[in-house]
Amino acid sequence: MFETMSLETLQSYWWIIISLLGGILVFLMFVQGGQTLIYTLGKTESERKMIVNALGRKWEFTFTTLVTFGGAFFASFPLFYSTSFGGAYWVWMAILFPFIIQAVAYEYRSKPNNFLGPRTYEIFLFLNGVLGTLLIGAAVSTFFTGSMFSVNKLNLINPGDPAISRWEGPAHGLEAVLDWRNVALGLAVFFLSRVLGVLYIANSVSDEEINKRLRKQLLANSVPFLVFFIAWLIALVTLPGLRVNPDDHNKIAWESFKYYHNLIDMPVLLIFLAGGVIFVLIGIGLPLVNFAKNGSKGIWHAGPGTILTVFTLFCLAGFNNTPYYPSNWDIQNSLTINNSSSSHYTLVTMSYVSLLIPFVLGYIWYSWQSINRKKIDAAEMESEEHAY
Amino acid sequence: MNFITFENNYKSRTMSLNIDYNLVDWSRAQFALTAMYHWLFVPLTLGLSFIIAIMESVYVKTGNEEWKRMTKFWMTLFGINFAIGIATGIILEFEFGTNWSNYSWFVGDIFGAPLAIEGIMAFFLESTFIAVMFFGWNKVSKKFHLASSWLTAIGANLSALWILVANAWMQYPTGMKFNPDTARNEMQNFRDVLFSPLAITKFLHTVTSGFILASFFVLGISAWYLLKKREEILAKRSMMIAAVFGLAAALITAFTGDGSAYQVSQKQPMKLAAMEGLYKGNNGAGLVAFGILTPSKKPGDGKDPFLFRVEFPKLLSFLAYRNPESFVPGIEDILRGGFKPEYTAIPKQEAAKAISMEEKIARGRMAIAAFGAYRQAAAVKDSLKAVEAEKTLQSNFPYFGYGYLESPKAAIPNVSVTYYAFHFMVYSGLYFIILLIILLFYLHNDQIENKGWLLRCIVCTIPVAYLAGQAGWIVAEMGRQPWVIQDLMPVSAGVSKIGSSSVQFTFWLFALVFTILLIAEIMILVKQVKLGPKDGGAH
Question: Could you say which of A57, A107, A160 has the minimum Cβ distance to residue B80?
Fold first, then answer.
């Protein structure tokens, strides 16, 4: 069935999958957000244990989604993988590093004789929560603000210096923090992940004391989230962007209000964006109004809202003749879903593999249901043999 | 520059290319560091997951609580090891991009797919059902729990399948064609990639070597309990399962090891020569049973490559080409050319007579130059020149990577490291088989607790199993140098353009962090073993 599709259709299909994975990843970063709140929400060891265990049963999904996001991006748009990862070296290393230390933190935290002490593993979780969200948010923002790289395939003919993709600047990606918009989206994702973390814990932990603090934290993190996100969104729709001209040899040129035009040209994205944001607001608003009644429901609104919003942002970055990875060094080197994708054959092969995704989501859902039938409480922590 | 001058330039035989070897070496070191740390944890996951699933199957079938207790004990150790395996794994996946970006573009069209499939097909299976394994004991039915344990094992081994398919493809690129318009290799046949003979033997050999390691992990800890006269029922039952599982795995490893070496001789003759320290090839070549290399040996210096050597006559020829009289080329033969190759993976041009390394380098440079000429002709829409350049490019493409080598000697891997690693691996494999047979004999006769020497020997074999696995990867990866993709791209052309000091910094950072985490892991493991099973592993 995929064989008959055109290369352009397959490229769009894969951009949609990448966008969806991106959306799911940001939603699942409630784990990271929660990790920054362990001591804020848990004042006793028993409370902290409940919070860590609630997050600990989900952290692998975020992690696996990140790995799959990377793998899928590599398979479908390898020029992005090679240009961005090999160029923005420090940014990606800074993103990956906290995930290394996260991976052992849950399992080792409460084990006897764990060398570094429980506190160190909690610091690992905190670092992962702060750096992971901030930097991934900032990295996503560069899909709109651009980066300093060049791509020249003719470099292959020079055996002494054959690198096709190069970063044109010494900071290897760290310069992204000089653009306030990248910082704003980083902070927006950071606070959003904390909001989602609060809502997830509200949904999966049953404890009076923690509940009181959750409500307070929900408000305290929602406000900065909204401020940074709205500021970033305003910047997005007012600033110029790049446009590929398919009628003129795919030449790339500046266009003012490019992303605003994308929203107007693709009204379905406008609806998605509005819908996503409204869902997030409902997810925050309902528990704020009546936490006792709606506390555990918030995540079911804010989660899908996050997925929809991030999905839309990725679509805005890549569709409608927009380069999704703009080069500020030479705009003609910018990456588009057309010039950076895998071949028709590979995309077809991968598209068949993508048919597994609903099946994967199905068994994940089934397994979650079967081990999360009831909320975590202090009593369960006492009796559970495998507690973090 | 037009095509003709390009051709003339590149025909010159030795030229300084100003390659930043510092960057290349640090990038290799970082990848090796990550891969070797990763391979400290993965083989245990691969094998222990199955051993646990077998134990739990017995529990579900018999309803005997002792088996449940045993399952839970090994699961605790499994979980501790699994976490650190994940920690090192994420870096490995992204390092293809961060440190080998040119590689990632040049073959990403083929190489990316198995990586993505690994995520979609295997990692989610693993991470979903491992959660049920650990948290589901009192929440799901016995059968669902058992199914989860099996699915975790299958997921772990599926992920090994995909990454090994990817690795096998780097050793023997197949099922693709170079497209000069996109400047990369493009996949043409997924089945060729997945079912390449190298991929199949590599997968089986590597995975079963992990099973051996896991068996010795279980055997060693059980033997320690027997020596301490603790947990005797648990220890003996665990030993029985691990010994049978381990022996089956060891036999498959030996069998597929032969298959792997056969594939190497067909596809990577230089690696085979390095594995055997073979400088001058001959008909009816012998296999080195034991030998010490001459440390100062250089190709072409006429010195005997061995200070001392005992060999099985004609065995190398037989193993390599299934014919005791066949000619196995040595390093010097491969540099010089001129012999009739008996290996299969060879460009048509060389079917009758192998060409020299200098000629390969010249043809590689011609291919690279023709690629440049094609791009320039295509840019100005000179289709005549483009067609001509592409013809030159495609006919010389099998040598493309040689064009990036500075001199013929750059095509030789580190012989002594490859040789010793290979022989250590083989000796260990034979030792494992003998030890497991002896062990099974005493287990069968129920005399094992009286054999202190055997129990101590098994405890001491745990590190040997780890070293053997590391040695195997050293053979596979050091032995194929300088290639990141056999014949098509050397490491120097695949590396990302970053400052070598940056890579040096991250190397030391990873070295430090991985080492600290390894210490933590070992301390926790040892503590758990000392605490013993109690009620399914203490926390």
Answer: A107
